[in-house]
Write a structure and sequence with these properties.
The chain is an alpha/beta fold and 256 residues long. It is 43% helix and 14% strand.
Length: 256
């Protein structure tokens, strides 16, 4: 089985200090880049998160503070990561809920502007959950007939995710070997407007607040009615990509 690609796709996986998108940081990133001709390029970087890695997190992925103390920061690695993923599609396991929002957050934290809407994204977990309901370890066993012995290693998880997607294409006739189809198929129902879920779409495709006193209200209407709310949002503890999305909506509506 070979993926039908119109441009390269980057399978990637992150190991992090925790699961809070607005606060936690990357400690390891692995990218497996698949080219339309089938060639591969793979890179894995340890990352100094510039914050302590909790012991409970180290117990999961095995990366300690000592392991990353001499590693480059994400700010130092950002140009290399961006160079590898630019003009590509993205794929991962649980990537739409976690890896993609956190990666966007890291880029924005170091002042690298990124618009994730320009990337088609395939979430292999969402395909799996829609069709079978399992974890990555079980998915690897189910689709590939192999044990994932090095789970929670970013490099192992990345390659396993790629192999699982190939296995899914082999198994299900309803799946098309086309990244646009797979991206659409793997999207969450009621996908958020901002990756993290603070902003949502109504049935007309208009952005609304999904939280707080303006929950269910159109963002454009709220910003028109209460301009000070925009300033409050920018100073509050929301993910940077959420703030960037609100800013784009404001500029689209008001032009400044």
């Amino acid at each position: 089985m070979k993926l039908e690609l119109h441009r390269p796709i980057c399978f990637f996986d992150l190991e992090t200090t925790g699961t809070q998108i607005a606060r936690d940081r990357i400690v390891e990133i692995a990218i497996l880049k698949i080219f339309p001709n089938g060639d591969e390029e793979s890179r894995t970087w340890k990352v100094n998160p510039e914050m302590p890695i909790p012991a409970v997190t180290t117990a999961i992925h095995g990366i300690s503070n000592d392991d990353v103390k001499d590693s480059p920061t994400f700010k130092e690695l950002a140009p290399k990561v961006m160079e590898m993923i630019k003009d590509c599609d993205l794929a991962g396991y649980n990537s739409m809920r976690f890896d993609i929002p956190l990666l966007a957050e890291e880029f924005l934290r170091v002042d690298v502007d990124i618009d994730m809407s320009k990337f088609r994204s395939v979430d292999v977990q969402n395909i799996f959950h829609k069709l079978e309901q399992r974890t990555l370890v079980a998915a690897y066993k189910f689709y590939c007939g192999k044990d994932l012995t090095n789970a929670h290693s970013a490099d192992a998880d990345t390659r396993a995710t790629y192999e699982v997607l190939l296995g899914q294409l082999e198994r299900y006739d309803e799946l098309e070997n086309d990244i646009k189809f797979l991206s659409d198929f793997s999207k969450r129902k009621n996908a958020p407007a901002d990756l993290a879920g603070f902003l949502v779409f109504n049935d007309k495709g208009q952005e609304m607040f999904g939280f707080g006193k303006y929950k269910g209200r159109l963002i454009e209407e709220v910003l028109d009615e209460n301009p000070g709310y925009f300033a409050w949002l920018q100073d509050a503890d929301f993910p940077r990509y959420t703030k960037q999305t609100i800013t784009r909506i404001k500029l689209r509506k008001f032009g400044k």
